[in-house]
Design goal:
heterodimer; A: eight-stranded mixed β-sheet; five-stranded parallel β-sheet; B: alpha+beta
């Protein structure tokens, strides 16, 4: 600041001096000219005003030329800037996740610009995935397969308005540009081969009478698509298709459930149970009917049935077989019948994504442009698996060899890959990562497959279990045939010589064929913007109250809900049972119940034949814990455990060796402290301000109701050993 | 002998069977049976049927849900000597409806590993009370028997 002032002080007098000089010079020259004129005129009265006129003309010519030059330069600069700006906008649009905002910017820019010939080539270069803007797109996207739902105009109305104002203000030429720009993105949607035709139609539409377009632009969103369709000869066939595709979407659904997972299905069931004759519509992006996820990383891998991958059937704990689908297709009714069927029912609309939510009008818009109005709505959109940044940036070859595990198709694809490659690396040491590592580890000897698991923590489930249990678990996972790399932070992944090379921060290099990234879930909150819903900054997900309500007619359940738990505080839970409990609760509240989240959900995990635990509440390894374990006796050897449960055939040889050494120790007079701790069975309490907020039942089962009760009470217990007695851990 | 050790913030206690034999002196709060927040079993405190009970499975929510509710309600409130004898019509229409969906309402015995229809079991038995329920394929007679038993 001072520097500026000092500089300014120094320069100011100079500036003043120079400016005064300039002025003086100017005045002088003008006066000179003026005098000269007079003088010349006086002098040349006899010969006429030719000479003075000549000087004047030169002056005018010079000034005029300067002005013209400036004008041309200014025009060139401005239009060049506009070009650069357009290109920048295209770049932004090309970037993923820029979505509607960028698309809007593109249309505004395109609508406003006069550089029409320049626009076409730049737009045609844009990739197919570019989020497209107007409803004219709708016609083309109809013909596309379900797997590529394009992000529809989440802002069709504002854009139409922009277009309207633009067309009103500007001359007729820009209006045809708007039409062109509308059709231009349309050209991108189908396969490249079709791009020739729309371009031709674009040319034709330019010459068409613009008033037709103006008139059509003025009314709201849907007529735009009609006018666009009308003015384009090439897509003539498309509008017919689009209406046909729309017809299977009901216009109104009293209960609309967005998302087709566990929470949504539980809510549907709850609504149907409480509201007789309820008509429930589930809209899901997936192409599958609602199914449960836990078996995808557990039971389905251990199934003896070779067809399990296809049928998706597995054996439960009690020996009974079932499918991962909650209900067979005959349970559901078709969306078209929803309004007509006498006693109502549950209909599932697959392969459609809700892209816009209008809370004022109580309606949603789908990716194909269809609109559905609702009376009560549940958002159960779950989330998408997170990816590591280093993999995201690593390029296509690496991405092709990376699995983000969540859906049925991911399971099928990984199962196939496990039979084809020699080495798989799992990045992530939490529930999913560890379960998949165990599942693959079990197959490793049969398939000749190397299974590696790496994570930044010190042990498996490092963020959930206290350190001693986490270490114990890690050993067990190792015994399943997994090569575990701890304290591993991935710095870089590259594709070299037909292998993936993972470079860790500490310099270690791991070569592998395929990577599974299990590094968390990103809750899907894309509707928050259009619906005006709050998103939680601490936990992610939609922020809802204790009754799971976001706004008057909108509830959220499952992975995407950040809710207020009266007992444990605000949280977001990503477990199966929570999805069921919260989905059911949301369904109850949608049918008038007004009950808060009260029944505490639980979760479980199985890692091989020795480690199976159930847990409830806040189970965070950063909390102080008190663990009460049954002292190891000869009975609790791993071998005994495996014999009892009848599982773990593969690892029997290893566990036998361990059992033998343990037996030798215990036959001698029992020493006061055992050499090797065996955390065979027990219960771990997680404390917050001396109150039990979480419990892990370690290899003890059927005691969840007691655990739930202790958390519900929320009491400060002086001696947790006494509380542990309630669990009878020494018995089966 | 039981013993205890401390690893940082985590405390670990090893207990023998004998040490845990004495009954616990931990105090638990008594449950209020009329707590509005609590989940209830099949029958609500006011005597109504809780259609949302996980124990019913998909019976009340499926395509034959209405018929099931009519039949079961009739039975529940029946004051006849032979309970439910005045509900034969309802049960018949329910049976007719269920026969239209053999996949959902299998007519075979429990022992068959029938398709999941109507039976939604959480993978762990201990979670059966918490998550989606265990209902056998022939839950109709089972359901009618339950109220009689309770």
């Amino acid at each position: 600041m001072f520097k500026c002032k000092a500089v300014w002080n120094k320069l100011a007098p100079l500036v003043r001096a120079s400016s005064t000089l300039c002025l003086q010079n100017a005045r002088k020259s003008v006066l000179r000219h003026g005098r000269r004129l007079e003088m010349v005129q006086k002098a040349q009265m006899s010969s006429g005003p030719a000479g003075g006129g000549g000087e004047n003309t030169l002056y005018y010519v010079l000034v005029g030329a300067t002005c013209l030059g400036t004008g041309v330069y200014a025009y060139r600069t401005v239009s060049g800037d506009k070009e650069r700006y357009n290109e920048r906008m295209i770049d932004l649009v090309n970037r993923p996740k820029q979505g509607p905002r960028a698309a809007e910017a593109v249309t505004e820019v395109v609508a406003g610009s006069k550089e029409e010939p320049v626009e076409e080539p730049t737009l045609t270069e844009a990739p197919v995935e570019e989020p497209l803007v107007t409803e004219a797109v709708v016609e083309f996207t109809e013909s596309k397969p379900v797997t590529e739902p394009l992000v529809e105009a989440s802002i069709p109305e504002p854009i139409v308005e922009t277009l309207v104002t633009e067309s009103v203000v500007e001359a007729s030429v820009p209006e045809s540009i708007i039409e062109v720009s509308v059709t231009e993105p349309v050209a991108e949607a189908p396969a490249v081969t079709q791009s020739e035709e729309p371009l031709a139609s674009v040319v034709e539409s330019e010459t068409k009478p613009t008033p037709v377009i103006i008139a059509a632009h003025v009314p709201e969103a849907s007529p735009v698509s009609e006018s666009a369709a009308v003015s384009e000869p090439a897509p003539a066939a498309e509008p017919v298709e689009s209406t046909a595709a729309h017809s299977d979407v009901p216009e109104h659904a009293p209960y609309l459930l967005i998302g087709g997972g566990t929470a949504s299905f539980a809510a549907a069931r709850s609504i149907r149970a409480r509201d007789p004759g309820a008509r429930v519509l589930i809209v899901t992006e997936e192409s599958e009917l609602p199914y449960m996820r836990p078996p995808l990383s557990k039971e389905l891998w251990f199934s003896d049935d070779p067809k399990a991958t296809e049928t998706l059937r597995f054996k439960q704990w009690n020996g009974k077989e079932r499918s991962i689908y909650f209900q067979p297709p005959s349970f559901y009714i078709s969306p078209t019948d929803l309004a007509k069927v006498e006693n109502g029912g549950v209909a599932v609309l697959t392969g459609r994504k809700v892209v816009h939510m209008d809370v004022r009008e109580n309606k949603v818009k789908l990716s194909d442009g269809a609109e559905i109005s609702y009376e009560k709505c549940l958002i159960a959109t779950g989330g998408v698996p997170r990816n590591l940044q280093v993999i995201d940036r690593a390029g296509e070859e690496v991405m092709k060899r990376t699995t983000l595990f969540r859906k049925i198709e991911d399971f099928r694809s990984l199962e196939k890959i496990s039979r084809e490659v020699k080495s798989i690396t799992i990045i992530g040491g939490g529930f999913l990562g560890s379960e998949l590592a165990c599942a693959l580890g079990r197959r490793s000897t049969d398939l000749g497959l190397e299974v590696i698991q790496m994570f930044p923590e010190k042990g498996n489930m490092g963020k959930v279990l206290p350190e001693y249990l986490s270490n114990w678990t890690t050993e067990k996972v190792r015994k399943e045939g997994v090569n575990i790399i701890m304290d591993a932070v991935v710095k870089n992944v590259s594709y070299k010589n037909d292998k993936l090379e993972i470079k860790l921060k500490d310099g270690r290099l791991i070569e592998t064929d395929h990577v599974v990234a299990a590094v968390g879930l990103e809750p899907s909150v894309e509707l928050a913007k259009s619906a005006g819903l709050e998103v939680d900054s601490d936990f992610g997900g939609y922020r809802v109250n204790a009754e799971l309500q976001a706004r008057s007619n909108i509830w959220v359940a499952g992975d995407a809900a950040c809710f207020y738990d009266i007992k444990l505080g605000r949280r977001r839970v990503e477990h199966h049972d929570h999805a069921v409990v919260s989905g059911r609760l949301a369904g109850e509240n949608m049918t008038g119940a007004s009950k808060p989240y009260w029944h505490q959900s639980m979760f479980w995990s199985d890692l091989g034949p020795d480690v199976g635990y159930e847990a409830i509440g806040i189970v965070d390894s950063s909390l102080p814990t008190v663990g009460v374990f049954a002292k190891a006796t000869a009975k609790d050897t791993p071998k005994a455990a495996t014999e009892q449960s009848g599982t773990g055939i593969r690892s029997e040889s290893e566990t036998e060796a361990v059992a033998v050494t343990l037996k030798a120790e215990t036959t001698a007079p029992p020493p006061p402290v055992q050499q090797k701790e065996d955390y065979g069975k027990g219960v771990v309490f997680y404390l917050r301000d001396n109150v039990v907020v979480g419990i892990v039942l370690w290899n003890v089962f059927n005691r969840m109701p007691i655990a739930r009760k202790i958390i519900k009470d929320g009491e400060q217990h002086a001696d947790l050993n006494e509380v542990a007695k309630l669990f009878n851990i020494h018995e089966d | 002998m039981s013993y205890c050790k401390q690893e940082g913030k985590d405390r670990i206690i090893f207990v023998t069977k004998e040490d845990h034999e004495a009954p616990s002196n931990a105090e638990l709060i008594e449950d209020d049976p009329n707590d509005p927040y609590e989940d209830h079993g099949l029958i609500l405190p006011n005597g109504d049927i809780n259609w949302n009970c996980p124990c019913l499975g998909g019976m009340a929510s499926g395509p034959c849900g209405q018929q099931f509710k009519d039949a079961f309600s009739c039975f529940h409130y029946s004051k006849e000597e032979v309970k439910g004898s005045d509900c034969v019509e309802n049960f018949r229409s329910m049976q007719e409806c269920m026969q239209k969906y053999p996949e959902l309402y299998p007519q075979e015995d429990d022992n068959d590993s029938a398709p999941s229809g109507g039976a939604d079991n959480a993978p762990t038995a201990s979670t059966s009370t918490d998550s989606l329920p265990t209902s056998s394929p022939d839950s109709t007679p089972a359901a009618t028997e339950n109220p009689a038993a309770s």
